[in-house]
Amino acid sequence: MYDYLLNLTQIETIFLIIGFIGQGLFASRFIVQWIYSEKKGISSIPIAFWYLSIFGGIGLLTYAIFRKDPVIILGQTFGIFIYLRNLILIYRKKNEKN
Fold it and tell me: Is position 11 within any domain?
């Protein structure tokens, strides 16, 4: 692994960092959801979960495009639309209450 990292070009290193940041954001959404649910005492999903999903997904999608990985590209593209749709539904409901 050490040799792999030493042999990366500058652009490969940048995209690797983007990929790791995306993965970190994407994974952190479960921690945020868990803490939020514990505080409420019920299983619940905070709005931050959807934003972390979107930004994490965009980071992973960027990395996947650079790596030309069709499996991750398709999965993240589809997921990002679902996360966006959830935010639209949440904000639509909030606006209806006002």
Answer: no
Q: Along the 98 residues of the chain, how does pLDDT read in single tens digits?
A: 889 989 999 999 999 999 999 999 999 999 999 999 999 999 999 999 999 999 999 999 999 999 999 999 999 999 999 999 999 999 999 898 87
For residue 12, is it within any domain? no
Q: Which domain holds residue 67?
A: 45-98
Instruction: Give 36-58 as a DSSP string.
Output: HHHHHTS----HHHHHHHHHHHH
Q: Residue 19: inside a domain, yes or no?
A: no
Contact by Cβ (8 Å): 52, 29: yes
Q: What span, in angstroms and rounded, lies between the C-alpha atoms of 63 and 69?
A: 9
